[in-house]
Amino acid sequence: MDSIILVVHIVVSLSLVGLILIQHGKGADAGAAALGGGGGASSSVFGSQGSTSFLSRSSAVLATVFFITSLTLAYFSGKTDGVDSITKTAITETVKDAPPADLPDLP
């Protein structure tokens, strides 16, 4: 279950980055109008303002899915059946009271 959500999260994040890079900023229209680039926006595929609202809505939907998958992954990462402390899992070895091997025998 975690791996499916992780794959969806990665795909959505890459799609969101690509979609944001496709969009142009608000200053791009002002620069084009100042240089005499003028009209022509009404002949675009989505209409005069259609692409902006389409890309904005798509970004909002992908951002919502991104946050949902982030919260879901955070929830699942907190539900591990782990041990609270590493000292609880430490293996205790019993030490034998044997003399060290390099000492000579007592007379």
Word description of this protein:
The chain has 107 residues and is mostly helical. It has a domain at 1-12 and 47-79. The protein is 54% helix and 0% strand. The chain is built from three helices and no strands. The chain has helices at residues 2-22, 26-34, 50-77. α1 packs antiparallel against α3 (50-77). The protein is rod-shaped.
Q: Could you give a quick summary of the protein structure above?
A:
The chain is built from 3 helices and no strands. The protein has 107 residues and is an all-alpha fold.
Give the low-confidence spans.
none
Major sheet summary line: none
Overall pLDDT: 77
Give the end-to-end Cα distance, rounded to a whole number of Å: 70 Å
Query: What is the overall silhouette?
Result: rod-shaped
Helix and strand sequence? HHH
* Percentage beta strand: under 5%
What does the secondary structure layout of this molecule look like, with pairings?
Elements (H helix, E strand, L loop, with lengths): L1 H21 L3 H9 L15 H28 L30
Comma- or semicolon-separated keywords:
single chain; 3 helices; about 110 residues; mainly alpha; about 0% strand
